[in-house]
Amino acid sequence: MIKKYQFITITILLFIGLNNFAQKKYEATWESLDSRPIPNWFEGAKFGIFIHWGPYSVPAYTPKGTYSEWYQYWLQSKSLFGNGKFKGDEVVNYHEATYGEDFSYYDFGENFKADLFDPVEWATLFEKAGAKYIVLTSKHHDGYTLWPNKQANDRGFAWNSMEVGSKRDLVGELSTAVKNTNVKMGLYYSLYEWYHPWWKNDRERFVDEHFLPQIKDLVTKYNPDVLWADGEWDMEDSKWKSKDFLAWLFNESQVKNSIVINDRWGKGIRKKHGGYFTTEYEAEAPEFTRPWEECRGMGFSFGYNQNEDAQDYNSPKALVLMLTNVVSAGGNLLLDIGPDSRGNIPPIMQERLLQIGEWLETNGEAIYGTKSWKSSFQWSKGEQNYKPKQHYLGGDFILKQTVDPEPGYAVKELFFTQNEDAYFAIAPKWPEEEMVINDFELADNATVTLLATGEVLKSKQMGKNVHISMPVYNPNNMKSTDAYAYAFKITKE
Predict the structure, then answer these.
(1) Distances (CA, A) of 239 to 27, 102, 192, 233, 261
(2) Cβ proximity of 288 and 326 under 8 Å
(3) Cβ within 8 Å of residue 268, ≥6 positions away
(4) 77 vs 67, 70, 88, 369, 487, CA distance in Å?
(5) Using CA atoms, how far apart are residues 51 and 475, in angstroms rounded to an integer?
(6) 377-491, superfamily in CATH?
(7) HSE value, Cβ hemisphere, 13 Å, CA-based, for 395
(8) Which long-range contacts (CB under 8 A, 24 or more apart) does 83-90 make?
(9) Residue 210 gets which letter from DSSP?
């Protein structure tokens, strides 16, 4: 029996220990900052929606295979890069023919009206899509802020959504709407700005008087769940003073215990330091030591590009297989949409989100809150990892790796995920009479269920492999969206 004074002593020690843990101070070093745990919800979220929206949504134009949100840079630098061969003057020629030589990029600000923007409708769509978080571009590389901010105007003229264009606090309105759902609210923020006079001529002043107070204002006003940095690549983290900012974020801000950050905080920092690691228009990541996220658009552009046609958008099957591919490798997919300048989300983008959401409604158990198996995929015979030679990897790569292979190339027959209770095998196409899982052992009382119908399937261990008998395929027993990929649940007991 513990004596009274011993009990009191233990209680005090426990209190001190817990209090010290809760008040841990993070130093402005990567060793200390990297030791901060990433909030648990993020790694289990699996599916997020990226939103690129700003004055570039007014012209909404670049050649196919390039980023429309880079319109200002293509225009003023007279250059262009992406998928394809370009002379470099394509955007300049389009701009002058459409708006005239004297029309500045900054003139687009007044035309960024967002007059049809309904934040509640957006938030409802995101929830129906099955997204667990969103990330909105609060400021892209052009420097225009989607919230009222005085630093946005220090270039000599007003350059924020409250004063120019919509006359609305777009970040604030969407944050309020999203936080009334079960979806987490994230904000993208570009560290640098292409043509800010201080960035061009006095970078120390840009950091001290523009970047640092501006990003702190963003965090303080809106308490985001995710802070997604970008535009870091031209300068080392020591010059950005990003470690000092992150120490403030983790020690003093209102979101110090809840916020999730990415890895874009200085030249050479990606996939080394920060929060979760990011990839962009890649296939699947190698084995990372931290949670990771792949971001890409439904087509090639992040911002709305009126030059993209229906065939430039990935099919819903390709998008579901992309999601499955990333999740089976332990990552999240951040899939981008680009609203137009009036605040409409293009119907084809809405349709794709709803199709993904309908598939997740049935099969989400195999996605949300899962982690990788010992193997992420089961390959057929042949050469693996087909990848076309593209600057930005198009979405058709996943179809070539699954249902439409090039001659001689292998396909991913199955994707694998697991949670505490079950393993999941996800097939890109309907297995014929049986499905074989190689090098896998069933538990004695394991059951195998097809999530699309709830049917329990017959299974048996044959050597090192498991053979699962397939039912007669009947599309009337399933939703049409279930055909994007078929998920099988295998209990662990």
Answers:
(1) 17, 36, 12, 12, 19
(2) no
(3) 236
(4) 14, 11, 9, 44, 48
(5) 34
(6) Golgi alpha-mannosidase II (2.60.40.1180)
(7) 24
(8) 83/300, 83/390, 83/391, 83/392, 83/394, 90/62, 90/63
(9) I
Two tokens, residue 238: 């020591």
pLDDT in tens, 141-182: 999 999 999 999 999 999 999 999 999 999 999 999 999 999
Is 322:355 a contact under the CB 8 Å cutoff?
Answer: no
**Percent of the chain's residues with pLDDT above 90:** 89
- Contacts of residue 336, Cβ cutoff 8 Å, sequence gap at least 6: 49, 50, 51, 52, 295, 296, 297, 298, 302
| Cα separation, 364 vs 277, whole angstroms | 23
- For tokens 């700003």, what's the residue? 54
Task: Say which amino acid occupies 173.
Answer: E
Neighbours of 85 (CB within 10 A): 7
Q: What is the CATH number of domain 30-366?
A: 3.20.20.80
Sequence-separated (6 or more) residues with CB below 8 Å from residue 26: 32, 33, 35, 36, 246, 247, 250, 251
Nearest to 422 by CA among 328, 330, 324, 492: 492
Model confidence over 366-387: pLDDT tens digits? 999 999 998 999 999 999 877 7
Please identify which residue in the block is written with the tokens 């007279």.
78
What is the reported pTM?
Answer: 0.94
Identify how many contiguous H helices and E strands the chain contains and give both numbers: 16, 17
> What average pLDDT does the segment 272-277 reach?
97
Q: Which two tokens stand for residue 373?
A: 């198996």
Pair of tokens at residue 455? 């049917």
DSSP-H helix ranges across 281-417: 316-328, 347-363, 396-400
Q: Is the pLDDT confidence value at 1 over 50? A: no
In the chain, where the domains are located: 30-366, 377-491
Q: What is the mean pLDDT of residues 61-84?
A: 95
Where residue 24 falls among pLDDT bands split at 50, 70, 90? confident
Strand partners, 316: none
